[in-house]
Amino acid sequence: MWTQNFVILMESTSRAPMLVLPEAAAKQMADAAAQGIGNALDRGLDPEVPELMKASDGLPIVRGERRTRSVVLPEDGKLPYTEAARKESSRGPHSPKSDNHEERPNWERCITSLGLPPVTGMGTTSVNPRQFIQIPGTVVIHTEYGDEARIIPLTDTHKPKTQHSWIGDSIARWEGETLVVETIGLPANDRVRFFSNLVVPESAKVIERFTRVAENELLYQYTVEEPSTYTAPWMAEYSLYRTDQRMFEHACHEGNHSLPNILLAQRVKDAQVAAASVQPTR
């Protein structure tokens, strides 16, 4: 079982262009970032994350260093987006129609969650421990948040597209002491990831690397290969730490009680627009 409880930012900022900060400066930056993320989600009526942000362990620690961001390549800490992809990321996840439940986002419908590769972090992710299970020829990565189990064969051949799952089709190989996981066929509805705003098109290939750099530290590195979205290679990383924490059931919002209200609210808006468009007769 591995987890972390850090405030993880994706890219460098003008206030913190450097990758590593000393402890005092790292605490100041983590507190400010946690407050900003918590306040934003509090305004969005999410009561869970703002409370979690108050109990984080600060900026990520990777091999003993406090990191200001996940992106380590390029060295400037910026994702090498195309101009169009940068704009798409800035807009955030697409707000779909509310005519039918199947048009709503996968994460809202509890189809995909925080196990979808790459796992970019959500500010603080102590709610998302990962369990690794190894059997001959297969590795399973089980995430608590969303209760997703990626069953990954050690092979060099992907399944046919008709057999891809909602969390893509993953295969694995060993490169020395590093487990390399390659995923294709990710869902189009999750093109822009919630929380991180990372753009991961359906045509992308995600490469994840897991390397045990110490007894209690597992380095997680990932990149997304998609030439129409990114102009150059890039890599992001953070560390997970071994824990005695148990894995608990995650039921999302059982029965999806919010969904009827989402669709009903749109029907009310539709009726209001229709009423306003009716011209009075004489």
Summarize the structure.
The protein is of the alpha+beta class.
State Rg: 20 Å
Task: Please tell me the overall pLDDT.
Answer: 90
Main sheet summary: 7 strands, antiparallel
Output the number of helix runs: 4
- How are helices and strands ordered from N to C? EEHHEEEHEEEEEEEEH
Please state the overall shape, judged from the principal axes of the Cα atoms.
globular
C-alpha termini separation: 73 Å
Please provide the count of β strands.
Answer: 13
Q: Roughly what percent helix?
A: 10-25%
Write the layout of secondary structure elements.
Blueprint lengths: L1 E2 L16 E2 L1 H21 L4 H6 L7 E2 L2 E3 L3 E3 L9 H9 L38 E6 L2 E6 L4 E6 L15 E7 L2 E7 L20 E10 L2 E9 L9 E8 L15 H20 L5
Antiparallel strand pairs: 1-13, 2-4, 3-4, 5-13, 6-7, 7-8, 9-10, 10-11, 11-12, 12-13
Q: Describe it for me?
A:
This protein is an alpha+beta fold and 282 residues long. It has a domain at 75-248 and 258-266. Helices cover 20% and strands 25% of the residues. It is built from four helices and 13 strands. Strands 1, 5, 9, 10, 11, 12 and 13 form a seven-stranded antiparallel beta sheet that branches. A hairpin with a 2-residue loop joins strand 3 and strand 4 (65-67). The longest helix is centred in the N-terminal third of the chain and has 21 residues, at 23-43. The N and C termini lie far apart (73 Å). The mean pLDDT is 90.
